[in-house]
Specification:
single chain; 6-stranded mixed β-sheet; globular
C-alpha cells in the first residue's frame, strides 16, 4: 500500500476523534450482540436478502414477496414448487414468484421509506401491518394494506433452553411462564434456587424489539405475564411499575441482542451452555438448530411455551395497495395465497418445523418431544395473546431501552494516509451520526491511530455528556501517517479492561466492546502480531470484552480482522465508503 506523508491539521485530537466516532457506531451495535458473524448473517441491515429463486423469466407476471425469515425454508420450497408448476393468471400470463427473506421491523422501515416495493408483505405478526398502515395513512391519506391479511402459518414464540436446564425448571410437564424466567433472572441465587449452584447466574439473550418480530412480541408477552393478562394491554400498563421491574430483572441478565433469531441460535449452539443458557426464539428455530448442530452440541435444546400465553406468530400474508402494484399482480398474489394455504403446502410446513394454520392437520415428526418441543401444546392449553397496538409496541420498546444494560464502547479508528479521500469523509459523517444516536447513558471512549507511530486517546465518558463535543471534533479529522494497528488493539484492550474493572468495583452491570476500523495492514507497531493476539481479551465468557472489526476497503486484511473478532467472540464486517453508513445502522440496531 502506498502511504504518503502530509502535514496534519489537528494531530492527535483529529486522529483520535475520527477513530472513535467511526468505531463507536460499530461497537455499540455489535457490543450488545456480538454473536452474529457477517459471513453467517449475510444482510445485516434488515433489508431484503438476495433473491431466493432467481430473476423472473422475460414476459412473466412477476410478484415479489418480502417474507419474515422465520419461515424461510418453507417459503423457498413452496415458491420453487409453485414456479415449477407454471401457474397462470386469468389472461394466461405465467406467474413467477420471487421471495426475499427479511426481518419484520427492517422490512417495515424499507417499505415505508420506499427502499423496498414488494407486491406481498408477510411479517411475523399483524402488529407490524397496523403500525405501517398508521404511518402510511398519515402520509398518504389511505391505507397501504386495506384488505384483511390471511394467516399463512404458525410459528409460536417462546424460549430455547438447554434440555438439562429446562428439566430443572420442570419441562415438559410443569408449566413454565415468563414470570419464572424473570424471577430466575432477578434472583441473586439464580440456578442455586432450583438446586444447581454449579450453573451460576442465569444468562439470557434475545433479539431487538425495534427490528425483530420475536423481539417485540416476546417482550410484549413479558408485559402481559407481569400483569396476568392475555388481551387488552395498554401503553400506560406497559409503563407501570410491575412491567418495568419485570423488564429490568430480565435485561440486567441479558448479554446478547440481535436483529435476527437464527444468528442468536447459532451462537447458543456453538458456544454451549457455559456461555448462554436460554434465548427467546421460535419453535421452528429451536428445532432447526438441534438438527443443524446435532454433531457438536453437548446437549439438545428444547422449546418452552410461556404457559400463561404466547404469540403463535401467524405470519400474515398481505397484498399491498401501493402505486407500484398492478391489478394483475394483485390477482397473481391471490392465486399464490390460495396455493400457500392449500392442505398439501400446509402439511409440508411441518417438515420445516412450522405448524399448519388449521388444527385439523395432525402434527408429526419433527414436532415431537424427542425433537425438542411438546406437540401436546395447543392454543387451548397456551392461549394466544392479543397483538399489540402501535401505541403498545412503542411503549414496549421504550421500556426495553430504559431497562436494558448500557454499553461501554472503545472506538478505535485508523486515520493513516491510506484513509484519505472518500474513506475518511464517509467515515467521519457516519461516525457523527452514530455518536448522536447513542443512548445518553452509554459510555463512549475514542481512540485513533496514524500520524506516526502513536495511538491517541481523545477522551470520552457518558454519551449524553460528550456526544456533541465528540461530533464536533470528528468533523476536524483527516488522514495521514502510518498504521500501528497491533499497538492500537493492545491500547484499546487495556482501556476497556480498566473501565470494566472500575464499573465492577462500583457494582455496575454493563456490556463492553471495542470497535476497530482499519483499511490496511500494520506498518508501524512495536508489538508483533502474536503479541497483539496475546493482548486480546478471551471470548470464553459472555461477560467478557468483545472486539468488533471493520475491514475497510480493498486493501484491508479481512482474514486478520476476522481472527481478531472470532478470538473475542465479536463480529466482523467488510466495508467501503458507500456501505459504512449501512454497517453502522446495522450495528446500532443490535444494541
Amino acid at each position: 500500500m502506498d502511504y504518503s506523508e502530509k502535514p496534519k491539521v489537528s494531530g492527535s485530537a483529529v486522529v483520535v476523534i475520527l477513530a472513535v466516532a467511526l468505531f463507536g457506531c460499530i461497537i455499540l451495535g455489535a457490543l450488545l450482540f456480538p454473536t452474529i458473524r457477517q459471513a453467517v448473517q449475510g444482510n445485516t441491515s434488515g433489508a431484503p436478502a438476495a433473491d431466493a429463486t432467481g430473476a423472473p423469466p422475460k414476459g412473466s407476471l412477476a410478484i415479489e414477496i418480502s417474507s419474515s425469515n422465520t419461515k424461510e425454508d418453507w417459503m423457498n420450497a413452496v415458491v420453487a414448487q409453485f414456479n415449477a408448476e407454471q401457474h397462470k393468471s386469468a389472461d394466461g400470463s405465467a406467474i413467477f414468484v420471487t421471495v426475499k427473506h427479511v426481518t419484520s421491523g427492517g422490512s417495515q422501515k424499507d417499505i415505508l421509506s420506499g427502499k423496498s416495493k414488494p407486491v406481498v408483505w408477510s411479517p411475523g405478526d399483524q402488529s407490524w401491518i397496523d403500525e405501517a398502515n398508521t404511518t402510511w395513512r398519515d402520509r398518504n391519506g389511505k391505507l397501504l394494506i386495506p384488505d384483511k391479511c390471511e394467516q399463512s402459518i404458525l410459528a409460536p414464540i417462546g424460549f430455547a433452553m438447554w434440555k438439562p436446564m429446562a428439566q430443572a425448571l420442570g419441562w415438559p410437564d410443569k408449566p413454565i411462564s415468563w414470570d419464572d424466567i424473570a424471577a430466575l433472572s432477578a434472583n441473586p441465587q439464580s440456578w442455586e434456587s432450583v438446586g444447581h449452584p454449579e450453573w451460576g447466574q442465569f444468562k439470557f439473550g434475545h433479539t431487538h424489539p425495534d427490528y425483530s418480530n420475536v423481539g417485540v412480541l416476546s417482550m410484549t408477552a413479558l408485559a402481559y405475564s407481569a400483569l396476568g393478562k392475555t388481551s387488552g394491554l395498554t401503553a400506560n400498563e406497559v409503563y407501570s411499575e410491575a412491567v418495568v421491574n419485570a423488564f429490568r430483572g430480565v435485561e440486567q441478565n441479558t448479554y446478547h441482542y440481535g436483529i435476527q433469531s437464527r444468528p442468536l441460535m447459532q451462537v447458543l449452539a456453538q458456544r454451549g451452555p457455559e456461555y448462554l443458557h436460554a434465548v427467546t426464539t421460535s419453535e421452528a428455530e429451536t428445532l432447526k438448530t438441534n438438527v443443524d448442530f446435532a454433531a457438536t452440541m453437548r446437549y439438545p435444546l428444547v422449546f418452552i411455551f410461556p404457559s400463561k400465553g404466547t404469540y403463535w406468530s401467524e405470519q400474515p400474508y398481505c397484498i399491498l395497495d401501493g402505486e407500484w402494484v398492478t391489478d394483475e399482480q394483485k390477482e397473481a398474489a391471490n392465486i399464490f395465497k390460495k396455493y400457500l394455504l392449500d392442505k398439501k403446502q400446509q402439511e409440508m410446513a411441518i417438515t420445516y418445523y412450522l405448524r399448519p394454520v388449521s388444527p385439523s392437520i395432525p402434527l408429526h415428526a419433527p414436532l415431537t418431544l424427542e425433537g425438542g418441543t411438546d406437540p401436546r401444546v395447543t392454543m387451548k392449553t397456551v392461549p394466544a395473546l392479543q397483538s399489540p397496538s402501535a401505541e403498545v409496541s412503542s411503549a414496549v420498546k421504550d421500556v426495553f431501552h430504559q431497562t436494558k444494560k448500557k454499553a461501554v464502547i472503545v472506538l478505535v479508528l485508523d486515520t493513516s494516509a491510506s484513509m484519505d479521500g472518500e474513506k475518511i469523509k464517509n467515515a467521519v459523517a457516519s461516525s457523527v451520526n452514530f455518536v448522536k444516536r447513542l443512548d445518553p447513558n452509554d459510555e463512549i471512549y475514542l481512540m485513533v491511530f496514524g500520524g506516526g507511530e502513536d495511538i491517541y486517546e481523545l477522551g470520552g465518558g457518558r454519551a449524553g455528556d460528550v456526544s456533541e463535543d465528540l461530533a464536533a471534533k470528528l468533523n476536524g479529522l483527516f488522514a495521514d501517517g502510518n498504521t500501528p494497528l497491533y499497538d492500537a488493539v493492545c491500547a484499546a484492550t487495556k482501556k476497556a479492561d480498566e473501565l470494566k474493572a472500575a464499573h465492577e468495583t462500583a457494582g455496575e452491570k454493563r456490556l463492553y466492546g471495542i470497535v476497530l476500523l482499519s483499511d490496511g495492514q500494520d506498518t508501524a507497531s512495536t508489538a508483533t502480531q502474536n503479541q497483539m493476539f496475546n493482548c486480546l481479551p478471551g471470548g470464553e465468557s459472555v461477560e467478557g470484552i468483545k472486539v468488533f472489526t471493520i475491514a475497510y476497503g480493498d486493501d484491508a486484511d479481512p482474514d486478520l480482522m476476522l481472527r481478531i473478532a472470532n478470538r473475542t467472540n465479536g463480529k466482523t464486517f467488510k466495508g467501503d465508503p458507500e456501505s459504512i453508513e449501512t454497517i453502522y445502522n446495522s450495528i446500532s440496531a443490535e444494541q
